[in-house]
Amino acid sequence: MQINLKSRIVNCNNNLMKALMLGWEFPPHILGGLGTASYGLTKGMARQADMQITFVIPRSRGDEDQSFLKIIGANNVPVVWKDNSWDYVNSRIGSQMHPDEYFWLRNGIKYDFRRIGTNDLGCIDFSGRYPDNLLEEISNYEAVVSVLAHQLDFDLIHSHDWLTYPAGAFAKQISGKPLAIHVHATDFDRSRGNVNPTVYEIEKRGMDNADHIITVSNLTRDTVIEKYHQPPRKVTTVHNAVEPLENIEQYTRKPREDKIVTFLGRITMQKGPEYFLEAAHSVLQSTKNVRFVMAGSGDMYNSMVELAAHRRIADKFHFPGFLRGNQVQQMLAESDVYIMPSVSEPFGISPLEAMQVGTPTIISKQSGCAEILTHAIKTDYWDIDAMADAIYSIVKYPAMHRQLSELGCAEVKGITWYDAGLKVRKIYNLLRN
């Protein structure tokens, strides 16, 4: 039964490129751009007929799109041997994993993980988020991947972001297969240079163990080379892209008197929300027919609400919280201007999503997407006056709004995940050879 199961789980066609991909997020349960990028890249790569991807996330819920790849939830992989019946396993996790697969994976337990707290199936209950005990979850994820590395058939390992680097390095050690790591951000971006030494050490060790490093922009590539002391020949930039939007015609801007200017993202110091708010204050000195939206959540949320009140613009400022799914596209489509004033943005997919629905976009020069976008206005994140001037011009001059809308929409149609996937595939081919 195990042989038949393995042939069902893993297609053994030697012409296939089989990637064991490790990531922390996957739609529809995402908390930021990492999940969006993981989905777009894997879907783009799956268009290659000889590409097979197994994607491991900490917690699967059974509603992920598996039409183009296989999802394994680390929360369903046993790391401690437990005696259970087939029927019991089926009643517990049958909607997410076939019981035969559970028992087959159980045979891959080679190490004593009894020190880790497990449930009645010998599995770890991951949060699927970024909890206070994140380092513990990263270590537990590494244990799960060791079981998979002993059982699955794959040609290489592809680890997304620092949370999965330790697991990727362990899988490489077990399997002897090459490791590619994908740097979506570094702690220099997240902390404005006030780097957490523990996180830096995990990132550095992952890069040192990698056979190749993929970065989402040249900005990030420079950081990897200079701050993490990696040889340039080992680091390749593959810019992110945008997933084509289904039923795009349904996302329209309703006629109204007031214009809407939107910030959408994590409300943290990396994203520069205070510069957006100060630019809003400046714009409102010249015109009153503009409303500002700061959509998202984060550790600076309360301070931004307080700053809006302090600047006496709270009546023109809206904080709708974290938006999900279609809410994001609808908010972007309803906006007259989208702005991303990030202090350090490795790439930034949201401007592409805004341009896709015809919304003129302002981005910081300190963002990776600025390297590939032509029809977006670029300012330094700290240049509040330039930001305010750009906002004012777009909302006051219909011709400028129309030109940025039309040219931006046309531009992003040529920035595809399929092309990004082809670049990643070239790296795979080099590693396997």
Can you characterise this structure?
- The chain has a seven-stranded parallel sheet with strand order 3-2-1-4-5-6-7, with helices on both faces. It has a six-stranded parallel sheet with strand order 10-9-8-11-12-13, with helices on both faces.
- It has two domains: 2-241 and 419-432, Glycogen Phosphorylase B (Rossmann fold), CATH 3.40.50.2000; 248-412, Rossmann fold (3-Layer(aba) Sandwich), CATH 3.40.50.2000.
- It contains 16 helices and 13 strands.
- With 433 residues, it is an alpha/beta fold.
- Helix 5 packs parallel to helix 6.
- The protein has helices at residues 2-9, 33-46, 86-93, 99-106, 134-151, 165-175, 187-191, 197-209, 218-227, 273-283, 301-310, 326-334, 350-356, 384-396, 398-412, 417-432, and strands at residues 17-22, 51-57, 70-73, 156-160, 179-183, 212-215, 235-237, 259-264, 290-295, 317-321, 337-340, 361-364, 377-379.
- The chain is elongated and about 70 Å long.
Provide a short characterization of the protein structure:
The protein has two domains: 254 residues, Rossmann fold; 165 residues, Rossmann fold.
Please give the count of helices: 16
Number of strands: 13
CATH level-4 homologous superfamily of the largest domain: Glycogen Phosphorylase B
Rg estimate, integer Å: 23 Å
The coarse overall form would be elongated
Give the averaged pLDDT, no decimals: 93
Order of strands in the sheet with the most strands?
3-2-1-4-5-6-7
* Low-confidence residue ranges: 1-12
